[in-house]
Amino acid sequence: MISLSSQRHLSWGRVQRPSHRVVRPSWRDDLATLFRAGFDQKVLPYGLGRSYGDSCLNDGGLLIDTGGLDRLISFDRENGIVRCEAGTSIGRLLEVIVPAGFFIPVTPGTKFVTIGGAVANDVHGKNHHGAGTIGRYVRRFELWRTDGGGPRECSRTENPELFAATIGGLGLTGLLSWVELELERIPSAMIDEEVIKFGSLDEFFALEKESAAQFPFTVAWVDCLGTGEKFGRGVFFRGRWAAEGKKTVHKAPKISLPMELPGLALSTPIMKIFNETFYRRHVEKRRVHTVHYEPFFYPLDAVSGWNLAYGKRGFFQVQFVLPVGGEAGFTEILKLIADSGRGSFLAVLKRFGDLASPGMMSFPMPGINLALDFANNGGAPAFLAELDRRIAAHGGRVYPAKDGVMTPATFQCSFPRWREFAAHVDPSFSSDFWRRVTADGSGA
Amino acid sequence: MNVVVIGASSAMAQEAARCFAATGASFLLVGRDAQKLADVAEDLKARGAKDVRVATADLADVGRAGIVLGAIRGAFDKVDVALVAHGSLGVQQEAEKSYAVAEEILRVNFLSYVALLTELANLFEAQRSGVIAAISSVAGDRGRQSNYVYGAAKAGLTAFLAGMRNRLVKCGVHVVTIKPGFVATPMTAHLPQGPLFVSAAKAGSCIHQAILKKRDVAYVPFFWMFIMMVIKSIPEMVFKKLKL
Predict the structure, then answer these.
(1) Tell me: the pLDDT tens digits for B141-169?
(2) Which of A58, A102, A188, B53 could form a disulfide with A245 if both were Cys (CB 3.0 to 4.6 A apart)?
């Protein structure tokens, strides 16, 4: 087992610069040693650091880096059930399961997340409207806690409260050592994709309605810098697994950003040019083609370390969902963003379905969901605070995996089960996020 | 394909073994810790290995090479690939103070290889086929103040492997000298990770390729060949004053 002090363990947004002590177990056996010895400071599991805000940080405390725990334990190729160590990344899991004709049932927009992290954030993807979150496909897992008694296996029937608290529990209920998942069977590694331009939010809502029943995967890119006539324009992507094709695995990223770019690189004028180009690149109104899963699910994975493009000061991401019927509120918030000119090019729009997650703290709820980046420049935090107020006012909810600014009030009213959850938080576990959203003294 | 991995719990060896497992290889894993070997065995089986056996042995103990050979003979009639990958960096500063520490580094990283490779060479010579690969290091290409004891062990190993390759080529046995540069593994976790570091997964796939393609000397990744060409070409009178 490795133990070191680290300034390298950051979150994806790179705004905070915490200092951690880090242990990196290489074997499941190491966990027994680690938990037997106990902890004299607050602990948090850390996967691949793809959470954007501070939910994967524990400044001044200890991180358990799970990257060394990336082995498979079993893979039932008949029934599509895999059990793997929690530090296994989705990308590395795909290397094994895709050639065997399976895919992860729910995937976020990057494959560089660990399975443990995916469970802890109860991730969703382009198939949320028909498949729900990943928590629905978790059969069992093993959880290490500091309150004694050794590791605990949890499932819907065994330790069900801990099972529910851990799915979407942000790593606060203990350390996952392995997870058993039910996989999705795929006929090929290719996606039949349709790309459709839309000129307004109304067009988007109509497209979305029409597509939900026919396409397992839908998502839209919206030009969040477009004002006036350009307001609400975007590109809609929908797809399904191609019936025929090879089951080839993705390749390693081709491009890698070696260092932080100057702040100018992603300034508003450059973003505007990017958005204009992106919108116009889709020349035809509607295009149908077959693509590999890599560019369909993971377009940003092509550039490793793309977060460095935001420069030294990093960036925030805001992702929120407004409940069903919130179209007017949504239009209002998107206007606020567009008029501010602060948004970035990576704005993703998607309607969530109504399939419930077993997770107590799961983020998705039925409604419209938007995710976008904000460079960390002068007025960003104040603007984000205003955004936070508007989201809360419309009964919305902010995704903890992305958040860096939400107030305790917003958190506590948008996650109504948070007190029930707090009772399951391991007494030795905490995070910068958790301390922030319970800072009014009401929390653990 | 029958693959023997000695030092099977090392990060690079695990990754190389994963590549072989994906093509349905059968394995004998040799290492010190039975639990770790069991974890690796499960992983390889889940990835498609046909069959995985394990044998425990303290690889630093040069007297145990015969036992390892017995396990290999018990597992397979014929071995296609043997990868020898155990090792430990040791602490240079302590080796400078104490011969006992230096000797330990030489024993783990050189003498134990000699013991195992001697047995393997004879086994492979008799079967007249197969590939023997062993992990040396770029550290063996030129002695540097920061790790010359480890470097000396690997320099010895590199020479030993070159000679073995020369001896075995005529009976159809191939020997690969693997020279990794900086690889992010538990062995190097305490070092600051510069841009030259590659993941153990990347290193493992390079090793897999080097074995399949029967390379003689494989730098891992390949760009270390150019770096070491430069390092080796610096005149000693300049080199001795550098901080490397």
Answers:
(1) 999 999 999 999 999 999 999 999 999 99
(2) A188
